[in-house]
Specification:
The structure holds 2 protein chains of 2 kinds.
Chain A: E1 13-19, H1 23-34, E2 39-42, H2 72-77, E3 104-105, H3 133-142, H4 152-166, E4 168-169, E5 183-184, H5 191-203, E6 210-211, H6 245-255, E7 259-262, E8 265-273, E9 278-286, E10 292-302, H7 306-314, E11 343-349, E12 355-358, E13 365-367, E14 386-394, H8 406-412, E15 418-426, E16 435-443, E17 449-454, H9 459-478, E18 482-488, E19 519-520, E20 523-528, H10 543-562
Parallel strand pairs in A: 1-2, 1-10, 2-7, 3-17, 4-5, 10-20
Antiparallel strand pairs in A: 6-13, 8-9, 9-10, 11-15, 11-18, 13-14, 14-15, 16-17, 19-20
Helix pairs in contact in A: 1-6, 1-10, 4-10
Chain B: H1 45-58, H2 72-82, H3 86-107, H4 116-128, E1 136-137, E2 140-141, H5 150-163, H6 166-171, E3 183-187
Antiparallel strand pairs in B: 1-2
Helix pairs in contact in B: 1-2, 2-5
The chains are: A alpha/beta, B mainly alpha.
Chain lengths: ~575, ~200
């Protein structure tokens, strides 16, 4: 792959600027470049070149000073991110520096960030699900939030388009609440998962336990290698077997010759031109030199990640938009959502002690939503619904084995007990009062105002969590598992790392920020296609929907440019 | 395992979290460390003797290497010095001192100085206290966790130091860095010991 052109020219007017290079920014870059637009991608952090910069990808535990554990200095640098439990010596360089990039938790909220080329597309969970017709209709049906300006049918061809390129593995089931993707062959369930699936589906009609649908290749695809079952994904995959901007969309954008990729570029604001009624460009701070630089473009795509995009828009003030660009409705920064996280049940599995598996599958089981799909599945306890992820595996802490000495040592080297868990992800209603706003008292390393986050789960989310735990315990008990224990870690929002909303799409400029093609209602040449645009948040993982929305919006942007409408 | 990889060492790091608000009893310094040439980074000499003796009791050399062979004690000292925060370090010191004080009270000598039969009695008594590590989900313990004392925590850390060493990882456990595929059902007899990674 040729190196990225990083020589951005402030004298030049680009056709397009893309802010951010994560899942959605990578797609914006690819689509716009492939359609012939000279595109400047601005990335806050360093270049992470596919393969070359995956420096920890092949490290074994003994290759690390402390076998993966973080030092107090590293824990301090990541004092917020480490709450996830995912940050280790092998991955800490892909998590943002919390000390240099502070934010204020008015109420507890975990904001996980990845400040590098590829953003969190290097770290994501790869669970990949289409939203359903139902998901786009929920707001209109129960009156929470505003109605989506689009429906499933509007996005359906774009789901197909991005899936065919990205490569999604899974099993087609024809479920209305979880439409099938264009699938590569599914990954395999292990023997315990197959057993539990059979029992759950027998005893709970309408519930399904399926292999997770994931953005991992199960066969070679578009020049990328298939999954090698190492489960070292978050270090970057040298095979390019999972979807990341680094492995997939940015190389495609680069191959067109139309891409300029500028690292260490902190976008301060988007500039508004009163005479044209459009955005004229972007003002950045060079993270290394602290210099202010302006870049001009015909269209601007905001893909900085949900809250960062909104932060930039709030900071983009002008006479026309004193409260932030596109904030005529007063909804910018509002209606923040996430999925509830780590509530479910764990259990032991007996009768499979002679069975094991080979390979470290970066995937597990999924139980699609089964409440409030129709009259038959309606419940009065809560609106909307939840799904589960989970897995069966041999684990356990060998220190639980009784004894010490020679005999103990032999036992401790054998595979541990079979364990099983399922954990729910519930849809969160869009509440106006769950919000972010600019905090000028607390500034980042570059003197920029930061975000205050004021968000909490309310009655409907807590009612779902209660049901998640009841159902999880019931399913695992009925499946014949032992030592079933329900749990609810009562995590604050943000832990799901599915933050959505704060610049929502809608039909009415009075109550929403973006229109049906992700354009700011009052500044049509600015597009927002990351999680900020979401009007509701379903209960399924959102990344695939960001990809589809981005490809659709990019297509619309180019059509409008051709018609001279932008 | 899933969504994002659970960190295997999370449970094993628990030693730091086991607070030992016990009296920091000081005793006469004991014999040499088990290792003549070792300059620990964190432990003082008699603490190092305790740790070396402890890991050898938990995972002795048999037809496969023991904890001392793979320098588990030396690695644990390095972790205490460079990974633990001040509270964790303080707790470790206090817990070792308390453990030795109990040995002294019951057997008249600190752990490293006891004969093997008495050390076995000490550890059997510790085992009888129970306390099991609960299950986790994606690297974080879930559900109610019963108290796990210093002994179990140090036993867990010993196992981590042992199984994460190159010698054990490559020659005792089943090392398969690039499995290449997934087979969801194989007989345990096909591999014997567990996978390294």
């Amino acid at each position: 792959m040729p190196k990225f052109n990083i020589d951005a020219d402030p004298q030049h007017t680009y056709d397009a600027i893309v802010i951010g290079s994560g899942i959605s920014g990578g797609w914006a870059a690819k689509e716009l470049c492939e359609k012939g637009l000279k595109t400047l991608v601005l990335e806050r952090g360093p270049i992470v070149e596919h393969v070359v910069d995956y420096k920890t990808a092949n490290w074994d535990p003994w290759d690390m000073d402390y076998r993966g554990a973080l030092t107090p200095e590293q824990r301090k640098k990541h004092y917020k991110n480490i709450r996830t439990g995912f940050v280790g010596q092998d991955t800490e360089h892909f998590y943002a520096n919390d000390e240099e990039n502070p934010y204020t938790e008015v109420k507890p909220f975990l904001w996980v960030r990845g400040h590098q080329m590829g953003g969190r597309s290097l770290l994501w969970g790869k669970q990949t699900y289409r939203w359903s017709e139902l998901d786009f209709e929920e707001n209109a049906r129960d009156g929470y939030g505003v109605d989506w300006p689009i429906r499933y049918k509007d996005l359906e061809p774009w789901y197909t388009y991005v899936e065919k390129y990205a490569g999604i593995s899974g099993e087609a089931l024809g479920l209305k609440q979880l439409p099938d993707s264009h699938f590569l062959p599914p990954m395999e369930l292990n023997c315990v998962e197959k057993h539990v699936k059979k029992r759950v589906e027998r005893d709970f009609p309408g519930r399904h336990m399926i292999i997770g649908r994931v953005a991992h290749l199960t066969q070679p695809h578009n020049g990328r290698g298939q999954c090698q079952y190492r489960n070292r994904c978050s270090r970057g995959c040298p095979y390019g077997a999972y979807f990341s901007s680094n492995a997939v969309t940015l190389p495609a954008a680069n191959a067109t010759g139309n891409l300029t990729f500028r690292p260490y570029s902190i976008v301060q604001s988007i500039m508004y031109d009163d005479t044209t009624g459009k955005a004229s460009g972007v003002r950045i701070i060079d993270a290394e030199t602290n210099k202010d630089i302006e870049y001009k473009a015909k269209i601007i795509f905001c893909n900085a990640s949900t809250l960062s995009t909104t932060q930039i828009l709030l900071n983009s003030t002008s006479d026309r938009f004193p409260e932030g660009m596109g904030n005529d409705s007063g909804e910018l920064g509002h209606n923040l959502m996430d999925h509830t996280y780590r509530v479910g049940a764990v259990a032991k599995v007996e009768g499979f002690d002679d069975k094991y598996y080979k390979g470290r599958r970066p995937n597990g089981i999924y139980i699609p939503r089964y409440y409030n799909l129709d009259n038959e599945t309606h419940t009065d306890k809560f609106l909307r619904g939840f799904g589960f992820q989970g897995a069966g595996y041999r684990g356990g802490n060998a220190a639980n084995i009784n004894g010490f000495g020679a005999e103990f040592k032999d036992k401790a080297m054998k595979p541990g007990p079979w364990e099983f868990f399922i954990t729910g992800f519930a849809e969160c209603l869009p509440y106006h009062e769950n919000k972010v706003y600019l905090n000028k008292e607390v500034t980042d390393k570059w003197g920029q105002p930061t975000l205050s986050i004021d968000c909490e789960y309310k009655e409907n989310e807590l009612a779902q969590n209660k049901q998640i735990q009841i159902d999880a315990v019931e399913m695992l008990e009925k499946a014949g598992l032992t030592d079933v224990v329900g749990f609810d870690k009562q995590h604050e929002p943000g832990f799901g790392i599915h933050e959505m909303g704060t610049a929502r799409m809608g039909k009415d400029p009075k109550t929403s920020v973006l229109n049906g093609t992700n354009q700011i209602h009052a500044v049509k040449n600015v597009f927002v296609t990351d999680g900020a645009c979401m009007t509701s948040n379903s209960c399924v993982n959102p990344s695939l929907t960001y990809m589809a929305l981005t490809a659709r919006a990019a297509n619309h942007a180019v059509e409008e440019l051709k018609k001279m409408n932008l | 395992m899933n969504r994002r990889k659970a960190l295997k060492f999370t449970g094993n790091m628990a030693v730091a979290a086991v607070a030992g608000p016990s009296l920091l009893s000081l005793f006469q310094s004991c014999k040499n460390t088990v290792r003549a040439d070792w300059q620990p980074e964190f432990l003082i000499q008699k603490e190092a003797s305790f740790l070396s003796t402890f890991v050898d009791m938990i995972l002795p050399a048999t037809d496969t290497p023991g904890a001392l062979d793979v320098k588990a004690d030396m690695f644990m000292d390095k972790v205490m010095a460079n990974v633990y925060d001040d509270a964790g370090k303080k707790a470790m010191r206090a817990n070792i001192a308390q453990f030795n004080a109990d040995c002294e009270a019951n057997f008249g000598k600190e752990f490293a100085e006891l004969n093997k039969a008495d050390r076995i009695k000490v550890l059997e008594k510790e085992e009888a206290k129970g306390g099991q590590f609960g299950q986790g989900v994606w690297g974080t313990a879930v559900g109610p966790q019963e108290p796990v004392g210093f002994y179990k925590s140090l036993k867990s850390m010993t196992l981590w130091a042992y199984t994460s060493s190159e010698e054990i990882g490559k020659n005792v456990l089943n090392y398969d860095p690039v499995p290449g595929g997934y087979d969801g059902c194989i007989p345990v007899s096909a591999v014997g010991n567990k996978w390294t990674l």
